[in-house]
Every structure is written in structure tokens, then in C-alpha cells.
């Protein structure tokens, strides 16, 4: 027996280790991780993030699709920068595309053709870049709609809502900048329209245009400047805002849909490691593969069809990308009599309102809405459980009304195409869309709110009387009625968990000493808006109502069972 051993050690000689010893690779990785932690202290933060619990619901993937498509867009953009020449110097094209050989064009357009026809895989990368950019804007927009309709913008997530709105705005600018870089006839027409919008800025419009374009249109500076904005400034801002968004999501509790066991104080889901990380990693490749498949099969932005940009030419039926359609549609719908001249200055109000003010007003309203709703409702609580859209009918109706207005303006950007394709008068289409601009949102608001209130009434009926079973029973008097199956406690919770609106306490116009209070008009406005939000609200079923309904149901079943004649059963 050695000097260091003990007699009792023999009793554990056959014990199996609780876990297998670490392999050489794991020990090496652990050593590297320890080395990094000794110098950065990152282990605590990384451990917190790895244990962070995220709820599991398909709608949360919308934000992931936006993030993954942005990553794909940036990776493919790096590839394209190796061959794209962002200058407007004139060259004669001698590349592989025969129809344009010998044509004078800018270096930007020639390099775009070279990427498409002479660089191996270049056309596929161009298509992936374009499709991923469109998917990024689509996914980001739908993600924000989910946040709005479920009330995920409420305290403490107002900052994240603002970040999302700014991300959406920057995505529009980034898309327009990238769309303009090839310098083909279609993108050049868009730049020409943008220059006209800039000229409409009162007093300083011509100076701003001269500074941006480096002189008269088209100049030789706008493409290099847009290129710098497109690959450096805006991507940097997007990455910074996305990082801030993810950090805030990690610091705050993640929102979750209501259900049994889910409260404002917990999160029911899976930790980042290993479950969520594995699912997120796999989902990234699914998104990447889907974009690659679409890009391989569906052509987009075939710049060689349009030819190089020439200031004295334009494309027939030129349309902006869908995400820039609503300001262009507003411009087309505004009447020409709004333009007038005073003191030698032309006030082009159709352009000023449609092209310059619609976007700031649209995003300004989005940013302000969480604070307006909080002020109207007086709700200062933290919210980590999401709303069912039907339980907030006014908010849902306002969102659908805004979407309807957006849709009308977007379709108005194609009024000329609709007139050609359907052989209709463009003037009649424009007049109809002008009417729908004002009438459409009102009808959408009314219809949506009615639908939400009807769904709430249906929820009350289901909670109080159970689900329809399809089982028809004949009573002793020959009458027939359907047997309803009551909900279990877990299923019922989703229908009754939301809080009803509390009555708004408005102070009187005078205090206890009879002195008039300030802000009387503001208090009255708040009271009216509160009534607009909640006057016709349908409150959830209370425990007392549920008990009374069950008691009545049990009595009815007992009476029917006692009176039912023998031989009469379900049919």
C-alpha cells in the first residue's frame, strides 16, 4: 500500500466516473476559453447569454428572417465590391453581351454587365444580393406589424420600437441607394425623379441638388457618393442598430404569448444553448437556401434589358420598388392646383407633400404611437405578455386602417400600368384612388373593429357555455339542442387572462380650493380619446360569471337527464 492511499479507498475502486473525461480537443478549447476569460472577463456575460431563455413561437422567426437576410445581403455585397466600379467615366462596352457591344456607357454600368456575364457566379450573387435585400425589408416590415398588433412596443420596449422604426427607414434608403448604383436606364430614371424631389425643397432645393450631384444632373459624383453610403455608412448604422436591438432583447425579458404558466414575471421556452442556438443555426441555412433557390429560378433586375442611362431617354412604365411606392403614389394622387408661385418662387406642394413629407410623417407617426397610447390609456405598467389583437380592437383597427392607406398609395404608384393592362382611363383610376385614400381607411377601421368585437363576444360564449360538439339531443318536449363541451382550465386561460381597461380618472377643472387647474383642454382631449379606445370594450369573463354559467348548465343537464324518456338518445 502506498503512503498516500487509505484503506477506505479500496471500497470505491469499482466506481464509474459520473461523466467521461474530456477529450484532447475539449481540453484545448477549454484552455483557449480560459485564456480569453482571464484577459477579458467575458465568461460571465457569455454564460448569461447562453442560459437566456427564449419562448418558442413561429411568429418570432420573422425577426430572425430579417436578420439572416441582412447577413446574406452583406456577405454577397462584399463579393460584388471586388468587381463593381462606382465611377461614371464613359467607356465603350466590349464585353460578352453582344447587343450592347460598342455602346458608350458609364464604368458603373459596364462593370455591372461584367459581373453578370463574365464573372463566374456573378449573376447568381447579384440575384441573391437583390432578393435578400427585398426579403430583409419584407421580413422587417411583417415583424414590426407583429410587434404592433400584439402590443410588444409597450413599456419597457419603447426604445426597441424606435430602433425598429429607424431600421425600417434606413432599409428604404439603403435599398434606393443600391438600386441606383448600376446606372442603367431604369435606375437613372429613379435618380432623375429623386433629383426633381430635391429641387422642390423650398428656397434651398437647388443648392442641395447641386451639392449632392456635384453640379448639374447627372454629374459624375452621385454614383461614387451613393456607393460610399451604400457599402459603408448605412451598413454600419444597420449593424449598430441591430446589435442594440439584440442586446435590449437579451437584457429585457422576451415577450411571450399568453397561456397557462406564462406570466409577466417568467419566460417559458428554451435556453440559447444548446436548443435555441441549434434551431437558429439551422434556420439561418434554411433562409439562405430559400434565397439561393429563388435567385436561381426567378430573374430580377435584368439591367441589360434597359441599356445605359441617358438623360434624354426614359423607360416606359418605370416604377419604383414596392417599398418606395407609397410616396410616389401620394405624389400621383395630389392635385396639380396645389402648385403655385409667390414672389418668384414656385411652391410645388404636390411634390413637397408626396415625395418629401409622406415618409417623415409616416415614420413619425409610427415612432410616436406607443407614447400616445400610453398617455391615452394611462398604462405605466411593464408588459411581457402579448395581446391577442382581438382584445385590443381599437389598436388593431387603427393598424389595419394605416395598412389600407399604405396599400392605396402603393397601388396609386402603378396607376398608369393598371390603365394600360386593364384598358381603363388613367383619370378614372386616379379619381377612384383619391376617394379610397379617405374612405378606405375609415371602412377598414370600422370593419376591423366590428370583427374584433364579434370575436370577443364569441370568446365569451365559448368560455361560458363551452365548445360546440355537433352532438344533438332531443328533449322531453320534442325540442332539440346541441351539447356543448366545457373548456378545461388550461384552454380557458387564453380567453380570460387579459386585463380589462381601467376607468380613466380625470381631475376636475378646479382644485379643492376652487382654483382653476391648468390643462383643461388637454384633460378633455385625453378623456375623449380614452372613450374612443375603450367605450365599447367587451370585458373578459369573470370567475363569478363562469361559476354562475356552470351552475346553470349543471342544473339544466340534471333536469334534462331526469325528464329524458327511455329509448331516446343522441342523434
TrEMBL record:
Residue ranges of every copy of the Cytochrome b/b6 N-terminal region profile domain listed in the record: 32-258
Molecular function terms from GO: metal ion binding; oxidoreductase activity; quinol-cytochrome-c reductase activity
Catalysed conversion reaction: a quinol + 2 Fe(III)-[cytochrome c](out) = a quinone + 2 Fe(II)-[cytochrome c](out) + 2 H(+)(out)
Pfam families the UniProt entry points to: Cytochrom_B_N_2
PROSITE patterns listed in its UniProt record: CYTB_NTER
GO cellular component terms attached to this protein's record: plasma membrane
EC number(s) stated in the UniProt entry for this protein: 7.1.1.8
Subcellular localization: Cell membrane
Membrane-spanning residues: 65-84, 133-153, 159-181, 193-213, 225-251, 283-304, 347-372, 393-412, 432-448
Highest taxon, organism lineage: Bacteria
GO biological process, alphabetically ordered: respiratory electron transport chain
Main enzyme class: translocase
Membrane topology of this protein: Multi-pass membrane protein
Location of region: Disordered: 1-30, 548-571
Basic and acidic residues biased stretches: 548-563
The protein's name in its UniProt record: Cytochrome bc1 complex cytochrome b subunit
Species this chain originates from: Janibacter alkaliphilus
Amino acid at each position: 500500500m502506498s503512503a498516500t492511499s487509505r484503506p477506505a479507498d479500496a471500497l470505491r475502486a469499482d466506481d464509474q466516473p459520473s461523466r467521461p473525461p474530456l477529450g484532447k480537443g475539449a481540453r484545448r478549447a477549454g484552455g483557449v476559453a480560459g485564456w480569453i476569460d482571464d484577459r477579458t472577463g467575458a465568461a460571465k456575460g457569455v454564460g448569461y447569454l447562453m442560459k437566456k431563455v427564449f419562448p418558442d413561437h413561429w411568429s418570432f422567426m420573422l425577426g430572425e428572417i430579417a436578420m439572416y437576410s441582412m447577413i446574406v445581403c452583406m456577405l454577397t455585397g462584399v463579393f460584388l465590391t471586388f468587381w463593381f466600379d462606382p465611377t461614371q467615366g464613359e467607356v465603350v462596352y466590349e464585353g460578352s453581351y453582344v447587343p450592347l457591344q460598342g455602346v458608350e456607357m458609364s464604368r458603373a454600368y459596364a462593370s455591372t454587365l461584367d459581373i453578370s456575364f463574365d464573372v463566374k457566379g456573378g449573376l447568381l450573387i447579384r440575384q441573391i444580393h437583390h432578393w435578400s435585400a427585398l426579403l430583409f425589408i419584407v421580413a422587417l416590415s411583417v415583424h414590426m406589424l407583429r410587434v404592433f398588433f400584439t402590443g410588444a412596443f409597450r413599456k419597457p420596449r419603447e426604445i426597441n420600437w424606435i430602433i425598429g422604426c429607424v431600421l425600417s427607414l434606413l432599409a428604404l434608403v439603403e435599398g434606393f441607394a443600391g438600386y441606383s448604383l448600376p446606372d442603367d436606364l431604369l435606375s437613372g430614371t429613379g435618380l432623375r425623379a429623386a433629383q426633381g424631389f430635391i429641387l422642390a425643397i423650398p428656397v434651398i432645393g437647388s443648392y442641395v441638388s447641386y451639392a449632392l450631384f456635384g453640379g448639374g444632373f447627372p454629374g459624375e459624383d452621385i454614383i461614387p457618393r451613393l456607393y460610399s453610403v451604400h457599402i459603408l455608412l448605412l451598413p454600419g448604422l444597420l449593424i449598430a442598430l441591430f446589435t442594440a436591438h439584440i442586446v435590449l432583447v437579451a437584457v429585457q425579458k422576451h415577450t411571450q404569448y399568453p397561456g397557462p404558466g406564462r406570466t409577466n414575471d417568467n419566460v417559458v421556452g428554451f435556453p440559447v444553448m444548446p436548443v435555441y442556438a441549434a434551431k437558429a443555426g439551422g434556420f439561418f441555412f434554411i433562409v439562405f437556401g430559400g434565397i439561393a433557390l429563388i435567385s436561381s429560378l426567378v430573374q430580377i433586375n435584368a439591367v441589360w434589358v434597359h441599356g445605359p442611362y441617358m438623360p434624354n431617354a426614359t423607360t416606359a412604365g418605370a416604377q419604383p420598388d414596392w417599398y418606395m411606392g407609397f410616396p410616389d403614389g401620394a405624389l400621383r394622387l395630389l392635385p396639380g392646383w396645389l402648385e403655385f408661385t409667390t414672389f418668384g418662387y414656385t411652391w410645388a406642394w404636390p411634390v413637397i407633400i408626396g415625395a418629401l413629407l409622406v415618409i417623415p410623417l409616416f415614420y413619425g407617426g409610427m415612432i410616436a404611437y406607443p407614447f400616445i397610447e400610453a398617455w391615452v390609456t394611462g398604462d405605466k405598467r411593464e408588459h411581457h405578455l402579448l395581446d391577442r389583437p382581438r382584445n385590443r380592437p381599437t389598436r388593431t383597427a387603427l393598424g389595419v386602417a394605416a395598412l389600407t392607406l399604405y396599400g392605396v398609395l402603393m397601388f396609386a404608384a402603378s396607376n398608369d400600368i393598371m390603365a394600360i393592362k386593364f384598358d381603363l382611363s388613367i383619370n378614372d383610376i386616379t379619381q377612384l384612388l383619391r376617394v379610397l385614400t379617405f374612405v378606405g381607411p375609415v371602412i377598414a377601421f370600422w370593419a376591423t373593429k366590428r370583427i374584433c368585437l364579434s370575436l370577443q363576444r364569441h370568446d365569451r360564449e365559448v368560455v361560458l357555455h363551452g365548445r360546440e360538439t355537433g352532438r344533438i339531443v332531443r328533449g322531453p318536449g320534442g325540442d332539440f339542442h346541441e351539447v356543448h363541451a366545457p373548456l378545461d382550465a388550461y384552454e380557458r386561460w387564453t380567453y380570460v387572462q387579459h386585463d380589462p381597461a381601467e376607468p380613466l380618472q380625470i381631475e376636475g377643472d378646479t382644485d379643492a380650493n376652487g382654483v382653476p387647474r391648468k390643462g383643461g383642454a388637454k384633460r378633455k382631449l385625453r378623456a375623449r380619446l380614452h372613450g374612443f379606445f375603450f367605450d365599447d370594450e367587451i370585458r373578459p369573463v369573470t370567475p363569478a360569471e363562469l361559476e354562475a354559467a356552470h351552475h346553470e348548465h349543471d342544473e339544466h343537464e340534471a333536469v334534462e337527464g331526469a325528464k329524458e324518456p327511455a329509448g331516446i338518445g343522441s342523434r
